[in-house]
Amino acid sequence: MARLADYFVVVGYDLDKRVEGEGQGRILQRFPEKDWEDSPFPQGIELFCQPSGWQLASERQPASFFVAVLTDINSERHYCACFTFWEGLDNLQKAEASEVDDADEDLAVVQSAKFFAPKSLVLVSRLDHTEVYRNCLGLIYTVHVDGLSTPLETVIGNLLTCVIPIAGGSQIDESPVCSLDTVPQALACDWLLACLQRTITLGAGDRQVIQTPINDSLPVSGSSVAQLFRQLGIVNVLYLFCAALTEHKILFLSSSYQRLTDACRGLLAIMFPLKYSFTYVPILPGKLLEVLSTPTPFIIGVNSFFRSETQELLDVIIADLDGGTVTIPECVHISLLPEPLLQQTQTAISMVLDPELEVADHAFPPQSTQSASLKIQDKEIRAIFLWLFARLFQGYRWCLHIIRIHPEPVIRFHKAAFLGQRALSEDDFLMKVLDGMAFAGFVSERGPPYRATDLFDDLVANEVERIRQEEGCPHKVMNHVKELAEQLFKNENPYPAVAMHKVQRPTENSQNTSQGQTPFPVLDEVAVQLFIDHAAAKLKTAPPVVKAELKGMVPSGPPLGDIVDRNGNVMANSARRLEVVRNCITYIFDNKMLEAKKLMPAVLRALKGRAARVCLTQELNQHVLQNRAVLDDQQFDYIVRMMNCTLQDCSHMDEHGIAAALLPLVTAFCRKLGAGITQFAYSCVQEHMVWTNMQFWEAMFYSDVQNHIRALYLETDDSPQQNNSERPDGSGREISALELASEQNRLWPTLSKELQAERVQKEESTVFSQAIHYANRMSYLLLPLDTSKNRLLRSTGLGDVESVSNSYVTNSIAGSMAESYDTESGFEDAESSDVANSVVRFINRFVDKVCNESGVTNDHLKALHTMIPDIVQMHIETLDAVHRESKRLPPIQKPKLLRPTLLPGEELVMEGMRVHLIPDGREEATGLMGGPPLLPAEGAIFLTTYRLIFKGTPTDPLVGEQVVTRSFPIASLTKEKRISVSLSMDQFVQEGLQLRSCTFQLMKIAFDEEVASDLAEVFRKHVHKLRYPQHVQGTFAFTVGQSGKMVVEHKTKDKNQSLKTLSKNLVKTAKRTIGRQNVSRKKYTPPTWENRSSFQSELDEDEISVSEEVDQGALTLSSTIRSSDRQTMSNVVERACCRDYQRLGLGTLSNSLTRSKNEPFRISTVNRMYTVCRSYPGLLIVPQSIPDSTIQRICRCYRQNRFPVVCWRNSRTKAVLLRSAGLHAKGVVGFFKSPNAPAAVPSQADSTSLEQEKYLQAIISSMPSYSESSGRNTLSSFTSTHMSTSDSSDKLRQPKIGALMKQVMGSKEDVPGTFSRGALGQRAKGLPPSQPKVSGKARNSPRGKWGSIRVSGRLSAYNPDVGTRLAGKESPQPNGGPSEAVFLRQQKAYLYIIGDKAQLKGGKQDAFQQWEVVPIEVCDVRQVKNSFKKLMKACVPSSAPPEPSMSFLRCLEDSEWMVLLHKVLQVSVLVVELLVAGSSVMVSLEDGWDVTTQVVSLVQLLSDPYYRTFDGFRLLVEKEWLSFGHRFSHRGAQTLGSQSSGFTPVFLQFLDCVHQIHLQFPMEFEFSQYYLKFLAYHYVSNRFRTFLLDSDYERIELGVLYEEKGERKSPQVCKSVWDYIDRLNKKTPVFFNYMFSPEDEEVLRPYTFISNLKVWDFYMEETLSEGPSYDWELRGRQERVAEETAEKPETSGPKSQRRVVWPCYDNLSKTVPDAITKLLQDLQSLEAELGQTSDKWKETWDKLKNTQRPETKLESKPSFSSSLLMSSNIGHQRRSQGVYLQESGVGSSINLALDCEASATSTPVAGRPSTSTLYSQFQSTESENRSFEGILYKKGALLKPWKPRWFVLDKTKHQLRYYESRQDKECKGVIDLAEVESVTAGTPAMGAPKNIDEKAFFDLKTTKRVYNFCAQDSLNAQLWMDSVQSCLSDA
Question: What strands lie across the sheet with 208-212, from one edge to the other?
């Protein structure tokens, strides 16, 4: 029973304490005066009566009523019902008047103004009956206003003495305990009646029924929930609901106080069964607004009057009830209900609130669907939330751990298990709810197993099945909701019929009268107190009220295992997988290790799934006997591996209980290490997060304690059942701990004191013993095996605030409370780095927590604290012994390290270190794309002077026989970074390296644990030293063949002394000559262009400015060249450039000396000492008319002194191609100055620019077309040239060039007549001859996406009409006619200068000059560098892409590599077109050694078929790249000095462009694609000296340039890549392109759009079987090794001819050669068999082609296949689009060409010899080659038997071959006689043929091994020995 009201208070306006209009209230009277003992009087009531502040009003306000809620210090809620009315003030006027001046009129004004002050009647109660309070206070006010006869004291006295039950239906008791109306009845009346209903009367003729709820635990909501949804809407309220549950701050705003209270009450009602336990203030007074900035969560209501003050709250969710909005600040993230719950809840609520919605679209809607009354709706909504919680918390009771039963049940919730079984461990909302305070309260309130139950308990236990079945069907859900709603409604209104209310209200007039109302009287305290005392006395004499509480066992509902929601991903763990796990474990324990090893990878894959992990723990459990399982080393290793794999995928929460199940196992499995030393599995599985998680240990501890306590009571219970562990209901299931506890709780009161004490003591010691056990367990898993290592359990903040489980700290408090927690959280403090201390601290924290929660006595706790350090110390000592012993263990058998084959001259720098090669982002080798998983592989990494090599075998045992090799030249390493790797098999995180090479290879290696970390460091240092030697002479190309120490100086004496001195002299003279000038090496200050190109920063300080005329004498040839130097000169003449100049007819050396004037060009020796330009070759082609002195002046205008020189001439049009660097900025403007500008004194700059002009003019004059037009700049000559020279072919071409030019220069606006992408596209079809039509078409053709090298702004600064004019159109003039000047310039320029847009700013084009500048944007070196980096990452990613959108093609596009290729090709094609059109072109870009070189080389390649042959291409590279000084060393970052500049593959870009052209014109190139790849690989490999150093000058300085043939130290070591290619080309057709059949003088014009370009397969391919195929010696060696080992035992089974070819493993061109290569190989092997000398492949091929040629001519129509090979009369059109073969295409049309002449329709054509006749010429008699033959027994390799073989001694080939039998054609093996060292008589060895003479044995000793032979008899043996001997002596 409880009092209806605790206190009655009258609060009035305090006149004495007014401050500037801010009034205050004060308590006028309160009853009773004394506080009740059970509920003290709440403070601050006067604030809550007027929450907006006490103010006077000028008019009387209507009376108001609301209920505020106050919470006291014990978190009890007090409901304050405030009834406020307004009274007029008289005394105020007097007070005011006395202050006012005496002026009469003022006084009158004041008197007429009447003020009203508020007065409040307040009821304070712990019960919440809003309506009853409204009625009671209303009655008191009515009595006062209407002056009723009943004294107020009586009414108040009755009110304060009214006692009602808290719950149990409405209470009827006709009389209140004390009433003046009726005589009290006997109090012994029937209690049954009293429990039904309670009518109260306050003695003023009133009567009202109080309906108390049937069940007190269900909240009472009236209609407040429905109201809340009406005001805010469904989604908003759901947001608030989730926010309240996840502990956010919520603030309600409304102008009505009662609405605020209702809204807050509604929000709490839907949170049932959780109770809100934070700050809850439905009405907050304005004075206390600072409460809103509290850090804790809250639900608070505030009047809208204070809205502005709430604006600056950053983390508060504001719900405006009047406006219906919810505002969530940006920084607040509300976790919402998990789907599908959220959706289903929303649907259900809308069906309640808006039933019309469903039928809104029906054609015949039902007649009436008006919604239920608010009160019913309210209950239905609450029912939906009940249903929601039942689904959220279903099965929660199965996750409760009961850890004490007596004296009080102590219960803990196992959060991780609950989330794991629900498959919601990732769900944010549920995680936060379970961590919240509300849920903690829920567990402590509903956890106890023996208590009264309510609707929720019933729902969550018995209705789960129904809820699951119905959840998908909204209508069934609604039926269930309605049933629940009915129960809720009944609970609140048990007897709705009996509601007899009779309460008086004040009469109308008394409310409205403003005059003459008496103030509320002061009440007589004594009278009221009498009532209270009287009632108290009565209660004392009354018998005690005992309400039988119906306690019972709380049902648990179905266990969670059965419930896992359907979409909870039960991992697809088929029975097959579990079977694999079981089998593997069985194999391990049966010691079938090989079987287990095979299954292992599959097991480790299966263990990703939960079911397999559970299965593993169960299986292992069966092998534990008496808590022990002793294993041998290998078993132990496998078990530990599986445990680690299992734990690796467990989260630190261990939601599936896997770690929990493994915990007892890791202390059971062990192996014996030595005498009395045992190593347990726990020492190998410590590296997992879960062991450092405090919550995990607590949950484990609690579950163990629960089991022990259950066992304790099962033993003591001597229950009548035989099997007392079964359930009493006979269902055969074990009694759960909770059921047991409930039974014990029921019996507890019946036990005697002693028994009770005994049970408490038993439980306590159970917990205590478990605590000791766990202290041990934790020390096992937390102390590392090697305690000296201070591994400190990783820096997982052990026990940071989050991990203190069930710590009732909310998200928002955590911050403020972190300080108050044990600040020594975890192992963070570095000072006490001692492992032992940190472990002790961790265990102490654990013990404190669990012991306090489970009520362990203080003495025990102290004992524990003293024990823990000893436990830890003891364990450390055992571990030390184990650690010592485990080091002595023989290492587990690891695969043997395979040694790599090395090149001649290549030496190991470091022996192999055992490593694992880990898969990177390429998926082919990992088995993901099908095929075997070749990676990860285990092997060793070797560092040699030339390469980094990994060689090993795949870890997957199914492909264990394969060998995996990955290698790259050390010089190509671009990036090395440390990584840490955890291998799936091993528990250790290993250190590793990621090495990336610019040969498109990536090695991710993890060092094996046997590799010491300092060794890894040494390895890195060595790599670095080899990658960046101090000087070029440290590179492999120079050190090859020398001993392993890095040699920088060659001290050996040279054979050819003169040559060395000669080159030294040359360099000395160069230095002397330079010394003679005043050389000032000035730091070069780059000119200020707008977008400055990066070349400047990379300039060497080789900027030599020559400030005086060079002494002429030094330059005449004969005077300076001494005899020894003349030899050098002749060497210079032999250089590639000279040969080429002579081929092109650009002058010979003799010419230049005798100066014959008819040649337009001469070879100048001005640079023979490299004094004019360091980076140019010694001999240069310049115009005949320019003297050397001019050259020396001109060169200063150009960067790096690289002045324009001729490098190629078109044999038809005689147009020349020149190359130079860009101009210095100062030169540019002078260069374009009008030549006839008045200059008084020619300044230095002017004179050079004039000379420059002279130079250009001389070049122009050399062109025949110019000299024809007599070379005078006259009008007539111009026009006549225009008329005469542009023949029809030019007409056709010009628009094309114009279009190209436009694209290259890239204009914004399309001038009529320019061509965009369309024009280029039409090239193949040939352009229509009529120009106007074309330009008309093109006028509106769209601009191609990639069509131009994009530029900003206008076409160019100087001549906006270059493109237009080239296209053969005039610039339109305003008057319609062409202007004079333009008309004159109509003729194409004689010389086009391709210049860098950035440099050419500000120049003015002169109309009469005959040259013209084409400004283009070049790609700067930085762009190339960055683009290449991205390209490498795209082609060889280091890890799988994080998001699928970053596919290979996307990364390729991002790299912009293709765009750069497109630009270079585009410019090159433009230059080709200009040269063909007869204009000369000068390419003058950047420093003249990067882009310039690319463009110039490509132009020559496209224009001149000679350069598309082997010799030509070599010449091209030597001339343009090597002699003209492309900085290979600098761009390749080959030495320490150039390391910072980084790797920039300019040459690779050029090779890629050649590859693109090769793809489009496969028949024009003599070399194959492989040739290009070979160069691409070796130009960075530093194996050859060809691509080292930056210029000829540097090569001469080192003496590399003119090495004579005889000077080679060892014949195997090739110094030049060209010699190597020549040699190889003689042996094998690998570099040759079989489709080579060039057109005469064909000019190639490739398409350059990005869509036409292909990614080069050089970037992508990989051969794991042998590493890159570009070092051919290795291939030969590997094959030989393979042959020797392949003396396989003959198996009886038939041997298949098929073999599997894996794309990323095998070398495709070798295993699947193309048809011609295959035929050539077969031919060779057939000839070898027939014993003939085979021709070189080239000769065979040429013969074949020659036989083909005449036939092709005979046939009228050449057959397709043969023409594809041989004929050269198909136009380019057909050929560029025709079929062509890849390098290794199988079964192409080529084999047809060799087998039968097949026409396009494949019909055989008569009249050509069959292939077989080709062989006849090679046939020869057998005898001449088979010098001696017969049968010999040969001993196989080790442990192989002796076998008879047919041996043939071949003198010609100098070899001993052997066959299976005489008839056999296939040779089984060959012994090269060159390798034979001796032939000696032998002795019979084991297993030799029986009954044979001892002398029949003889041995053949070769350099590699000894062969044992046995002949039929001794005579025969002697014959064989003699024959072999004679062969050897002949040789």
Answer: 169-170, 208-212, 198-200
